[in-house]
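Appendix C: a fully annotated inverse folding record. The material below is reproduced so that readers can follow the format used throughout the book. The structure is listed first as tokens, followed by the designed sequence.
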């Protein structure tokens, strides 16, 4: 039995979808514990390529039960669209349940997200505009509507009437925007509720029961550690707890439950949206990595900013998550490069930093201190054993392990499930 959290170690988009799809085949339960449909996990299998935004990436393992935990914010329309896509694939799917405590993204959340972002002007954060931040804000302001409320017609009517009056005042008085119609919102979301009602359940109880029965349980995090609301590059972060510890509250597991954590890292770095990114490459090499790695946002389609591997930020992720191992993805994207660099420290004025500063203003002034290694300049997509990798590829992997203080137990050399080198099974005791 193992409870394993798969978390992003960088700025998101590290390839968690493939890793969860790979490991989910050995699990009885796979659960999302944070974020919303601003996340995008790509799964490639015999049925096609699927971009998962809310549904756990274990959905294509029919022996698994998939949960959307209470720490997730749910856009009902987006979820139903995604369900339609995976069902249309013809694949046998895992059963899916949604926490009755998960908060609902409402139309006013999307409207306010877009208006607030526009009002920031040059100080915009670069949100996806999908209502994630305002939904979490309402959760903590105790104005949220939860899935259990949504599927209870009378409760939903009462709560929507109260909250919509407040939100319409914000829309009209602060932003000069058109108010939302109660009747239209109520009828639209009531239709979603009727479709989703059979899936709404006490997922926390289901997760605790699976653990008690000794099942393999996989917790799927969204985004990456450097976007964590507490420990990321604040305020250029997401609105939820991304790190492995967030899996306890985001799913309803007790903190005395031992959880192993596997961190997913690209062999280079990328991020979407605004915010500091010390190792960013605004040159031909950065463009090469973007095109070879197809580095465009799964959710938004925006081109990702690409750069060299940042060992400083990655060390922080290893420490915060207590990582037992690393899944190193997209190593094959570096195949053609003659020289590789790793950011081993930051230079801030005359000072050399080996830790990520908390203040974003300081991080924006940091210059990376690089170490250079030779590339391997041959394709590795067909390699299935670590020993068969080119010597320079192994040297690169081993230097990353040394710098971040964690072994690379899984190495991905392509998008397909079988393009993977497993040096140690993280689900094995």
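Designed amino acids, in order:
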């Amino acid at each position: 039995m193992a409870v394993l959290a798969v978390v992003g170690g960088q700025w998101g988009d590290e390839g968690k979808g493939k890793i969860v799809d790979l490991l989910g085949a050995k699990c009885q339960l796979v659960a999302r514990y944070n974020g919303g449909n601003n996340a995008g996990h790509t799964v490639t299998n015999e049925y096609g390529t699927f971009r998962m935004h809310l549904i756990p990436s274990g959905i294509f393992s029919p022996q698994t039960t998939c949960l959307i935990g209470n720490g997730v914010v749910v856009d009902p329309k987006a979820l139903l669209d995604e369900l339609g896509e995976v069902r249309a694939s013809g694949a046998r799917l895992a059963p899916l349940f949604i926490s009755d405590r998960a908060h609902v993204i409402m139309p006013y959340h999307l409207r306010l997200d877009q208006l607030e972002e526009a009002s920031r002007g040059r100080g915009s954060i670069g949100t996806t505009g999908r209502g994630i931040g305002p939904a979490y804000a309402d959760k903590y302001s105790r104005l949220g509507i939860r899935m259990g409320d949504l599927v209870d017609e009378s409760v939903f009517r009462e709560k929507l009437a109260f909250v919509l009056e407040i939100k319409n005042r914000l829309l009209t008085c602060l932003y000069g925007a058109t108010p939302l119609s109660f009747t239209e919102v109520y009828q639209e979301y009531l239709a979603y509720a009727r479709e989703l009602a059979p899936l709404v359940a006490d997922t926390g109880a289901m997760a605790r029961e699976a653990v008690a029965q000794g099942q393999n349980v996989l917790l799927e995090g969204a985004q990456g550690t450097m976007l964590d609301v507490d420990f990321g590059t604040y305020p250029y972060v997401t609105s939820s707890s991304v790190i492995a510890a967030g899996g306890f509250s985001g799913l309803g597991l007790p903190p005395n439950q031992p959880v192993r954590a596997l961190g997913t890292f690209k062999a280079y770095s990328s991020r979407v949206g605004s915010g500091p990114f010390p190792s960013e490459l605004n040159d031909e090499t950065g463009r090469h990595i973007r095109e070879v790695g197809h580095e465009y946002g799964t959710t938004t389609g925006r081109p990702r900013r690409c750069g060299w591997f940042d060992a400083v930020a990655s060390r922080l992720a290893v420490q915060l998550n207590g990582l037992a191992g690393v899944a190193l993805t997209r190593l094959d994207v570096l195949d053609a490069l003659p020289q590789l660099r790793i950011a081993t420290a930051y230079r801030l004025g005359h000072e050399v930093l080996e830790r990520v500063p908390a203040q974003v203003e300081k991080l924006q002034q940091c210059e990376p201190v690089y170490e250079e290694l030779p590339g391997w300049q041959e394709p590795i997509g067909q390699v299935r054993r670590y020993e068969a990798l080119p010597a320079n590829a192994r040297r690169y992997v081993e230097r990353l392990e040394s710098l971040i203080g964690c072994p690379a137990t899984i190495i991905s050399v392509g998008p397909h499930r079988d393009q993977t080198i497993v040096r140690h099974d993280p689900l094995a005791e």
